[in-house]
Amino acid sequence: MTSTTKGRPLTGRAMIGLEDLTKRCAVQAHTAVDTLNLEIPEGEIVVLVEPSGCGKTTTMKMINRIIEPTSGRITLDGEDVTSSNPDQLRRRRGYVIQQVGFFPHMTIGENVATVPKLLEWDNKRVAAQVDELLETVNMPPASFRDRYPDQLSGGQRQRVGVARALGTDPAVMLMDEPFGAIGAITRDRLQNEFLHPQEDVRKTIVFITHDIDEAVKLGDRIAILQTDSQIAQYDTPERILTTSANDFVAEFIGKGASLKRLNLSRVADIELTQWPTMQIGTGHAEVLETLRQSHRNALLVLDRAGHPRRWADAGDLQGAQDGVLDQVGIAPESVLESDATLNDALNELIAVRYSVAVVVDSDGVYQGVVDIDQINRSVRALRESAVAESRENTQCGILQSR
Amino acid sequence: MNFLEFLISRSEDMLELGLEHAAVVGVSVLLATVIGVSLGVMSYRRERMREAVLAVSGAFLTVPSFALFVLLIGPLGLGAMPVVVALTLYGLLPIVRNTITGLREVDPAIVESAHGMGMSRTQRLLRIELPLAWPVIITGIRLTTLVLLGIAAIGSIVLGPGYGELIFTGLARVGTPVAVNLVLAGILGIVVLAVLFDVVFSALGRFTISEGIR
Predict the structure, then answer these.
(1) Strand, helix or coil for residue A300
(2) Contact residues, chain B, for A174 at CB < 8 Å
(3) How much is the pTM?
(4) Which CATH number fits domain A14-92+171-264: 3.40.50.300, 3.90.1200.10, 3.40.109.10, 3.20.20.60?
């Protein structure tokens, strides 16, 4: 039971490397970031989480050379960029900050065109790129290109912000709490939208947040920073949640660790229970016989395409006309797509009256059912495998938390 | 002869003086804008320099205009020249002050995001900061124009061009019936110019301030 995108071993090439990165503030003796070492593998989302303090933002700004490190090295794709021209370096990366930082005097199109224009692309190419990027983030260029940032809603602004950061399709994106200023419901939707293209384009993304839930949801790898930006733990979300490296991490994750883990697995990853089903049109006698043999108290009625239609118990079926099953019983209320998280499944199960939720694939075809016991079992298994895995990794010395 | 008849009899004069007055103010506003915006840009991020620039351009305004015009006869002679120089100095404060305020009011997050995307210092200033500060700067230029339209009249004392000539001629003939008409005509001319300049600035604002920040 491994999920598809998360927790791959550190085999990828390091896209960004931070070596002994240190930033001392001139005024205070205090160090903002002290000898930070971090390797960010190509094509992964690495989330830097820090419960408080500004070490994470300082680190991000150092990666983008907005703040110059006091000492240490930054490498990009194997090349030492600690002292190369910072403006040219920045144009090779997408950069999104919390307030998005739109240029309010420019149209959406002009905003998105910023980096292509800085790189002196010709106008035709810039225009084509802008339209393509707006399409990518589901903002029809014809209706949004010539609007101004003030005319967009929070969610739309965030999408355009991502489009602008994608400007010239950089391999690396730096995102500083991009969803920080957005309401919970929109944020959830944006996070999903954000993950969706990532499955295909696999950009290397450094993502900053103070929210461990967001980190668990988005990160392929999470670095938890403690005082002076020391890395308390750098690991996959599974292992962060199951085996905390120290008390700091454990306390940060808090009591909700088991619940958070539910966000890591998808319904598709667990073994579904098969429930007795009947197609619409099956004869009366056969239906009742199937129900009796199943030792369940109800049947799930499917239409000819395999879509779940009704729950029907013995009473409903007795009264049904021969072969007419699409009006009996009650409609299934809790239906989950197989890419829903276990957390979604649990929510469904708590919210509805039945003890099981029906699982369908993306075409709505019945796959099986899931109940609370199964979720419970999979959480336990997840924990055990993560513990075993982290023990292995510690022995191999792959754990990066220096 | 009533005031209206007086205006009609002097209409050609009025037009010519008006053009001169507008030209001398226009040139001075332009110079003050170039110098003022430059000073603002140079000083808005440095506290010491900012205070110095504001103190000096403020100090010019405290010098009585009459005195400054006379002082400038020495180095610059008579005519339009000393008037333009004096007006430029008087016009600095509103422009410098508004340039500094406008630039400092630009949201740092916007500038940081431009920085993070790879805009150089000059690009940030020209493409982001100045366009965003422009509505405030243009208000300063508008104010300067109004102030200079009035002060320009005093320039007549060093034989400068414009409506001041009418006012000073009127002053020389106090007690005669024509004196009041002369002074009133000068004032009227300046007020009409002020209205016209304001119309021009509204149009300029409409064309140069982005729709996104209006």
Answers:
(1) strand
(2) 116
(3) 0.71
(4) 3.40.50.300
